[in-house]
Amino acid sequence: QVYLAESGGEWVQAGDSLRLSCTASGLTFTSYAMAWFRQAPGKEREYVGSISYNGARTRYEDSLEGRFTISRDNSKNTVYLQMNNLNVDDTATYYCAADRRTNLITSRTKSDYDYWGQGTQVTVSA
User: Fold this and answer.
1) What is the distance between the alpha carbons of residues 35 and 58, in angstroms, rounded to a whole number?
2) Residue 78 gets which letter from DSSP?
3) DSSP state for residue 90 in the 8-state scheme
4) Do 103 and 52 form a contact (C-beta atoms < 8 A)?
5) Closest CA to 1 of 119, 120, 118, 115
6) Model confidence pLDDT, tens digit, residues 13-67
7) Rounded Cα gap, residues 86 and 94, in angstroms
8) Structure confidence at residue 66 (pLDDT)
């Protein structure tokens, strides 16, 4: 059974940094692209960024590039989301997701992802 476990979410103040982690089990991690999405209350789940199966390529939602960085450690079956200079609009539940395709160009589309975690809450106060 595939399991994606996010961690690291917490309550922070605007301007702070935070690193989220997502550890995968039950799959061959090196065969999956990984992504982060987020969902704020009353809004659709939106794409944050993604990383190719081998870590060679990343891509981000345009508005987040420069503040958010995705990385992965295949030896630990873990993908990370480093978030800097957080603001109140970053408040959301953050989800990681796995896509079994090994394209270097990763997808921004929710339906392309095969497995999802339960999410971790990030709250940013002004």
Assistant:
1) 9
2) E
3) G
4) yes
5) 115
6) 999 999 999 999 999 999 999 999 999 999 999 999 999 999 999 999 999 999 9
7) 14
8) 92
Residue linked to tokens 């392309």 = 112
Buried b (16+ CB within 10 A) or exposed e, 50-84: bbbbeeeebbbbeebeeebbbebeeeebbbbbebe
Q: How many helices (H) and strands (E) does the chain have?
A: 0, 11
Retrieve residue 65's tokens.
């590039």
Average pLDDT over residues 88-111: 94
Mean pLDDT computed over 113-126:
97
Within 13 Å of residue 27, how many CA atoms lie on the same side as its CB? 24
Strands 92-99, 18-25: pairing kind: unpaired
In the predicted model, what is the mean pLDDT of residues 80-94? 98
In a 13 Å sphere around the CA of 50, the CA atoms on its Cβ side amount to: 25
